[in-house]
Amino acid sequence: MTHKTLFASLLATSAVCLAIANPATAASTSDRAREAIAAAAAKIHTAETMGADTQAPRETADARAVLAKAQEDFKTDHREDAIQDAIHASAMADTAIGLTQQHKDAAIASARDDQRATAESARDQVEAARNQAAQAQNQAASAQDQTVAAQQQAADANARAQSAEQSAAASAADAKAARDAAAIAAQTPPAPAPVVQTTVTTDHATAVHHAVHHKTAPVKPTTSGATRTTADDTTTTTTTITPQPQPQP
Fold first, then answer.
1. CB under 8 Å to 198, separation ≥6 — which residues?
2. Could you tell me the residue ranges of all domains in the chain?
3. Which of 45, 37, 33 has the alpha carbon at shortest distance from 94?
4. 38 Cβ partners below 8 Å, 6+ apart?
5. If we measure between CA atoms, which residue out of 21, 35, 36, 40 comes closest to residue 96?
6. Residue 25 has pLDDT above 90, yes or no
7. Could you say which of 55, 56, 192, 197 is the most buried, measured as most Cβ atoms within 10 Å of its Cβ?
8. C-alpha to C-alpha distance for 171 and 168, rounded to whole angstroms
9. How open is the CA angle 128-132-134, to the nearest 5 degrees?
10. Which of 67-76, 168-177, 191-200 has the highest mean pLDDT?
């Protein structure tokens, strides 16, 4: 839209310049002055519409000042001066339009650069976010593996503790059984010594004499009688051990 307006303004200015340059085509000097002033006013209006009052304020103000002088010349019947001032005002308006367009083009280029830089920065941020997400996932997976390993270690520790408890319980049971057996053994009196009885029989050749000796353990053996023997005598010794009954606790 700006380029179309600029083209129309330049076309109108060119037509006015041609008309002024060729007096034969103009109805009168007054008409040519009016046309020049109108063209300059249109050119200045176009420049202001494009933003020349902010982009090229000095050029726009000078164009308006020269246009005002042209209008004053026309009012005071200085038609040729009015025509020249109007042409000058149009030229100054063209300069303001050119500067404004340059500023706009530079602003557009800068905006495109900024947009490109913003897009690149956004892509970098997205890539960084993806990397951070991947790193977070890796850390989460590592933490999960550590948790599983810790749970396994805890299970192993619990199993070892349970086994130790069972061993301790078995040891305690064995110790209790040993204590009970020791208590029972302590309460049970010792068994009496068995009775040992020895019988000695001597056979004589001419006459038989029997001598019996009795021994009872743990009493030391004593001899109740003695019998002389000869070479033809035969002596037989018999020992009998009789265990005593176990007393009840």
1. 213, 214, 215, 221, 237, 238, 239, 240
2. 2-117, 195-220+231-242
3. 45
4. 16
5. 40
6. no
7. 56
8. 5
9. 115
10. 67-76
